[in-house]
Request: fold
Amino acid sequence: MPKNKTVLLVANGDLRLSANQNCWAKQEAMEAELSSVLKELGGDLKRAHKYDPEVKHGFISSQRQGMDIFAKIDRKAPLIVAEAVWQYSHHLLHGLMSHEGPILTVANWSGTWPGLVGMLNLNGSLTKAGVHYSTLWSEDFSNDKRFQKKLKKWLETGSVSHPTAHVRKYKSKETAKGLKNAARQIRDDLDRNKAILGVFDEFCMGMYNAVIPDELLFQTGVFKEQLSQSALFAEMQTVSKAEADEVYNFIVGKGFNFHYGRNAKTGLTKAQVLEQCKMYIAACRIGDTFGCDALGIQYQQGLKDLCPASDLVEGMLNSTDRPPVKNAKGAIIKAGETYPHFNEVDECCGLDALMTKRVHAALKQPTETTLHDLRWGDWDASGTTKDYVWVFLISGSAPIEHHVGGWKGSHGYRQPAMYFPQGGSTLHGIAKPGEIVWSRVFVEDGKLKMDLGRAKAIELPEAETQRRLKETTPQWPIMHAVTYGVSRDQMMARHKANHINVAYATDAKQADNCLYAKAELAKQMGMEVYVCGTNAAGKKL
Reply:
C-alpha cells in the first residue's frame, strides 16, 4: 500500500488571548475532521506547530510567532491553512508569500465560529500579495462529496478552482447617457477638488487586503489623512459632560432602546454610552478640522483597552438622522447628511462609501451605507423563501436608516467582553426589506478593482431571525440578503474580502441605475470594474 502524501497544516488565530482560548475547542474538532477526510483521500495531515499548554490553544497568535514557525517549514510541502475562527492575516502572510508548494485555505461553514470570514480576509490578502492559492469551504467535511472531490483534486494536482460565470467585465456602452454624465461630474469634481479619507491608524486586525496603496488611491482623486487613535482619545477628553448629554438625549429622544446591566464588566452602563457620545463628537470635530470626507476608526486594536467600542459612534456617523455636532466656529458639521465611516479602517470600503454617497446623492437615492461582514448563510428554516439567504452582520456600525423602525426599532447592547473589555453599546437592528446594491473594492495584480452586484434585503419571521442571530452574534445588526444570480459558492469563489458594502435604493430600477452609475464612476477613476449576477428580473448585469 503506497504511503499517504504528507500535508502540513497551520492554524492562524486572533491577537487576543481570550478569543483564541474560547475558540480553540472548535478549531481542534475541525482539524480532526479534516485530517480524517484527508487520510481517506490519500493524505496525511501533519501540524506544523504544536498546541501550547501555557496559553491553552494551538493558534499562531503573532507575526513573530508565525515567522518562527515558517522558518522551519519545508517550503515545497503542500500546505493547508485551516480556519474555524477569525484570524489576523499578517500572522502568516509572510510565510505564505515565501512558500513554494501548493497552498489551500480551508474554512468551516458556521455562523458561530466564523472561519469563513477569516478565510475570506486571508484570501483577499493573498490575492493582493500576488500569492497563488486554492480555497475550499464546507459545513460538513465528512459528508460533503463536492468538498471531498475538490480536496482530492488539490491533493493530486496542487490546485483546485471554482466556476465564476456570474462575473463579467463592465463595459461603458451599456450605461445610459444620463448615468454616464452623473459619473463624469463626480469624477471631474474629484479630479479638481480631491477628497480625503480620515484614517485613525492604518492596518487593523491584520487586514492587509483593507489597505489601499497610496499610489493606487491617488489616481482616484482621493487621498488619506493619517490620523491617530491617541488623538481621538485625547479629543474625547476635551468634550464636556453637557455636550455628551446632548448627544445622549438626542438618541433617547428618538426612541432608541438601551439595554443596561449592573456590572460594567459584563453589562452595558450609561457611563459607557456617555463615553461613546464623547467619541462621536470628537470624531466629527477631528474630521471637520482636517476636511475629511469619510472616517475610519480601528476600534478592535488600541482603543478597546482604553475606552468603550466605537460601533454606536460609527452607526451614527453613517446615519443621516444623527445628533448635530458643532465645530469651533459654531457651524453644524455635515448638517443633514451622513459622515461616512469605514469600519476597521477598511480603506477599500471607505473609498466605496465615498463613491456611493456621491452617486446616490446625484441620483436622489438614499446615501447611507453599511459595511457588513459576509458572516454566514443558510437556507430559510421557516420556509418563507426558497432562496439562499445570506447573513450580513457587522459589529454595530449600521446606520439607523437601514433598520426596521429606524431609531425606535434599534437597540443598544453591550459589546461581548471577549472582544471589548471596556464595553460600549452596539447599534443593533434588523435590516429593512428593500432593493440594494452590494460592492467591494479590492487590489489584484497591482490594480484597484471593483465588483458590484444586486440583491434584496428580505424580511424573515421573528423565530428565523432569532435563530440566525443566536448562531452568530445577537448583539450586532443583521441583514437577511438574497443575492441576484450569485450562489453561495460563486460568492465564496470570487469575493476578495470578509467585508461587503451595501446601500439601498427606492426600487429595483433605481438600484440598477445606482449600480451602473457607480460602475461607470469606478471605471473613470481608473479601476477595473466587474458586474456580478443578475438584476431583480433575472437579466444578466
In short: The chain has a mean pLDDT of 96. The two ends are 52 Å apart (CA to CA). The chain is about 35% helix and 20% strand.
